[in-house]
Each structure stands twice: as structure tokens, then as C-alpha cells.
Amino acid sequence: MGADQVPILGLPLAEFLAAAKALGAFRSMSPPDCERMYRWFHRTGGVPEGGLPAWVRDDRRPVKAVQVDGDTVKFTMELADGLETESVAIPMRHRDGSVTRTLCVSSQVGCAMGCRFCETAQMGLMRSLSPAEIAAQLHAARFAVGNPATGKPGFEIKNIVFMGMGEPMDNIESVLGAIRVLTDRNAGGIAPVHVTVSTVGRTDGIRRYGEFLLQPGFHRLNLAVSLNAPNDRIRSEIMPINRAEPIERLMEALLAFPKRPNAAICVEYVLIPGVNDADEHCDEVCALLKPLRCSLNVIPYNPRRSSPWPAPEEESVQRFVRRAIENGQFCKRRGTKGRSAMAACGQLGNERIRARRFVGGAEETVQIRVAGGPDAPERA
């Protein structure tokens, strides 16, 4: 952040007040007034008459585009450097008839992981997002994005999933900083039990995330892992990360992860026709996961642009799920939402900005060679 500004979206209340005090802001605004401003901004989207004080950095960005597929809404925000974030507000219907919203947020612009089935991977990594740029996605969903159900701006968000663009574990400190804001009762107010961080299997990041869960107030955060294959041969073909961090290493990190009692890790499995959807693949996956308390979440493949594979037939999906259950594995099928708006799992990413190859932190970028695509080189 700038030396003379404090990011109101990037810090939980206690840290915001401490930074304001260090900056000398209390000479012009009392601590109680500063605290009220912070809460009002996060809870209502409102700002003081005349705008925020000059010492407050406002990382809100205008919503550039909104795409709607039924009740699923994808929105894009243009960042200060011209790059874009993509986020998705997803309706979750419950057995009692109620509907809540899950917000899928991005932690990076693009992604360096190169997974062949993922649209974001075709962009390569442009840069990581700051905590404020991540938290700004929730603020926009609550106060700026039009809700087709009500005709007014704003969604009531219950859950946050770090399953948008980017590999969260490659930007883990910013992700943890954003979680502090998203779960602060004075700010985002999302209960930690309703926050999930997903990874392709970055074991160092999994360990760092586990350390964070040991801090007071964060033990109920959730972990999701994209497995997507029953063995190293298939996984290395579709997920380059597996060449550096094979399944055995990933399983060691998952078995050591500090879950709360009765909690389960979500193991995501993108079902791709002709690649990982055979009966023997299901049996192999279930045998692999037997030592791990987990939920197998089967995700029908959502074709990316220029995809080498089609979406699976529904009968193939149901057969895989049934066989997993017969194997004694707790298993669920993830509903497909937002596919026609390129808002479904694995479909985020702006093809128009693929030619711009940047990587770096939120404050600076440097040129790199693109990562991703079926011929991407092995990555560490």
C-alpha cells in the first residue's frame, strides 16, 4: 500500500485502526468515528458525505461486465492496471426450499498451473491479487452487481470459495490476508466454516494454510483439492503440477492437514470422457482415498474454448458416482451451473487478454513466457 494510505478493503478492523493511528489519521478523525466509517463501508457499501478521507485507499473497482445464466451471475471488474478479475455468484438451493448464494472468487489474474481442462490455464499467469483486490469481489457482489431475481444491486452471500481464477496456494499470504477481512465480523462477516480454499495440490501452501487454521478463530476453514485422476500417469498428462508434486506427496500433505473433528477434505474430481471416467478409474480413486476422511466431489467436465474433450453424458456421471458409493466412498455430484456464460467450474478467463503476459505481485509486474496449454513445459 502507499505510504500515506491505508486500504479499507485490505485489512481487518483492528489492523486498519492500528495502521490509521500510525499514519496520524486520528489527528483529524477520532478512533470511534474511524471505526464507524469502516463498519458502514463494509456493511452497507456507503461512504461519508464527500467520500472517504484522503488517507484511506479505496480498492473498489467498477463492474465492467455481467453475464447471466439462469440464476448464476458472472461479473468482471477491471483493475487499476487494466487487467480483470472474474467472480461468480452461484445459487445454492436447499432441501427446505431456501436459496443461498456462494461467491466464487479469484486469487490471481490467470494461472500458471497449466491444467489442460481449464480455461484459466490457457491465459498463463498475469499477476497475483492483493488482499484488497480479493475482498473487493465480495464488496462488489453485495453492493454493485445487479441481481436478476430482485432487479436491484446486490446479493446476500453466505459462502466464499477460492475456486475462481488462479492457484490460491501460489498467493497464499494474500489469500490469508483476504480471509481475515472476509471473516471479520466488522467487515465481510462470513463465518469461517463457510470459506473454502481450493488447490491443485501445492503441498507447501497446504501446510501454510494448515498453520493458519491453528490460529484462534480459523479452525473451521475448509480445504478442497483438485485430484482429477486415479494415478500419476493420467494426472501428469492433464495436470503438470503432478510431475513436481505427485499423488503420494499430495496424500502425505492431506493426511497431515489439521482438520477439526468430523470435518472432511473436499476432493474434487473433474470427470473427462475417455480420460478418467472408467469403472477401473473409480475403483482406483476410492482405494487411494480410503485412508483420508474426505468427500469426493464429482464435477462433470465443462468444456473450455477449443476443448479437446466434450462434456460427459449424464449417465456416465451417475455411473461413476454410484460406483464410488458402492466402494464405500462418500461421493456427491456437483451441479453444473453457468456453463453457457463460461461461468462454470474451469471456464473463467478472458481470451482477449491472453497476449498480455505478466507475473508478479499486486504492485508490480514483469514479463514472462506463458504457462499453460497441452504442450506446456513441466513446472515446479
Question: Could you please describe the fold and organization of this structure?
Answer:
- With 380 residues, this protein is α/β, with parallel strands linked by helices.
- It folds into 2 domains: 6-57, no CATH class; 63-367, Alpha-Beta Barrel (TIM Barrel).
- The chain contains 10 helices and 18 strands.
- It has a 10-stranded mixed sheet with strand order 3-4-5-6-11-12-13-14-15-16, covered by helices on one side. It has a two-stranded parallel sheet with strand order 1-2.
- A hairpin with a 6-residue loop joins strand 17 (358-359) and strand 18 (366-367).
- 44% of the residues are buried.
Computed CA radius of gyration, to the nearest angstrom: 21 Å
Number of domains: 2
What order do the helices and strands follow? EHHEEEEEEEHEEEHEHEHHHEHEHEEE
Ranges where pLDDT stays below 50 over 5 or more residues in a row are: 337-344, 353-380
Topology:
Layout: E1 6-7, H1 13-23, H2 31-44, E2 56-57, E3 63-69, E4 72-78, E5 84-93, E6 99-104, E7 108-110, E8 125-128, H3 131-143, E9 146-147, E10 152-153, E11 157-162, H4 172-183, E12 195-199, H5 203-213, E13 222-226, H6 232-238, H7 241-244, H8 247-255, E14 265-271, H9 279-289, E15 294-300, H10 314-326, E16 331-333, E17 358-359, E18 366-367
Parallel strand pairs: 1-2, 6-11, 11-12, 12-13, 13-14, 14-15, 15-16
Antiparallel strand pairs: 3-4, 4-5, 5-6, 7-8, 9-10, 17-18
What's a concise summary of this model?
The protein contains 10 helices and 18 strands. With 380 residues, it is of the alpha/beta class. 44% of the residues are buried.
